[in-house]
Specification:
Number of helices: 4
Largest sheet: 6 strands, mixed
Radius of gyration: 37 Å
Number of strands: 17
Helix content: 10-25%
Shape: elongated
Number of domains: 3
Order of helices and strands: EEHHHHEEEEEEEEEEEEEEE
Distance between the termini: 77 Å
Strand content: 25-35%
């Protein structure tokens, strides 16, 4: 709204000037009201509440709802009372149209507001991210580095299509698959011994993305027993390459058919060690198995 002063015989009419000042200040105050209290309100300014974009005059349907909770030139915070209303009857709440569906006064970053007083203006559809899970064909939580692991991802997108699935090992990209079935076989010899975490990330046709929960596998090298040793006191001592922190069970057998537990231990170094005092004179076979 423009400001002007009318002169009569070289003199400004004070009363008219004062009246114009009053109109200008009112329009500015009401524009501030929508810009300050309505998320994304500065996108439309006075046009939110009035048919005229300059403010004043007939109200829009949104303006009628606002008017229920404010006084002329008032500064009441009305948004929490109208965000869940559908002023234009298009099936979307005022909050959904202005990018603040929960009415907390904060608009979604980058949201493009639609006109909450115009039924033909509705929010652009919000992309729904795809869903994805991943699993491996390992029969247990352990796998030998001499083998392979087949990863299979199950991905879907409710409002579009899955454009690609990426497979990761400990956050490092292994491969990208662009069409179903989303599968990949990992050569475990390329990975280090220890706990490995495999994930899959699905990306849809609108660049929405979701990463699966991890499929965890503990990789180990095949165990090989070192040559047993008998101490001068007669105790049997055996050892094998181990992974610090791993738990092992040592078993013995006299016929390689029936195995019995001789003891358990948690490795504290790269070599697992087990000793058995007063070892039996009978011939025995020993083996160590990693269990955790």
């Amino acid at each position: 709204m423009k400001f002007s002063i009318v002169f009569f015989r070289g003199l400004a009419l004070p009363g008219f000037v004062v009246a114009l000042f009053s109109v200008v200040m009112t329009a500015q105050a009401r524009n501030f009201r929508t810009s300050f209290y309505v998320p994304n309100g500065n996108t439309f300014g006075c046009a939110l509440c009035h048919v005229s974009s300059g403010g004043g005059g007939p109200r829009t349907s949104f303006g009628e709802d606002v008017n229920q909770f404010v006084t002329p030139n008032g500064s009441q915070q009305f948004w929490s009372r109208i965000f869940n209303l559908d002023s234009d009857g298009d099936g979307f709440t005022n909050g959904e149209e202005m990018g603040d569906p929960d009415g907390d006064g904060r608009a979604t970053a980058g949201f493009r507001a639609s006109r909450p007083w115009l039924a033909s203006s509705v929010p652009a559809p919000v992309n729904k991210a795809p869903t994805i899970t991943v699993a491996g064909d390992a029969s247990s939580a352990f796998a030998l580095r001499t083998g392979k692991l087949k990863l299979t991802a199950t991905a879907a997108d409710s409002d579009g299509t899955v454009s690609k699935v990426e497979f990761f090992a400990d956050g490092t990209l292994l491969t990208t698959v662009t069409a179903a079935p989303f599968e990949f076989t990992v050569d475990l010899s390329t990975l280090a011994v220890g706990g490995r975490s495999f994930t899959a990330k699905a990306t849809d046709n609108q660049n929405g993305a979701t990463t699966s929960t991890a499929f965890a596998v503990k990789l180990r090298d095949p165990l090989s027993m070192n040559h047993p040793r008998v101490s001068p006191e007669g105790a049997l001592e055996i050892s094998w390459p181990s992974l610090p922190g791993s738990k092992y069970v040592v078993e013995f057998s006299e016929d390689l058919v029936t195995w019995k537990e001789a003891g358990t231990l948690v490795a504290t170094e790269a070599v697992g060690r087990f000793s058995e005092a007063n070892a039996s004179a009978a011939a025995r076979f020993y083996r160590a198995r990693e269990v955790e």
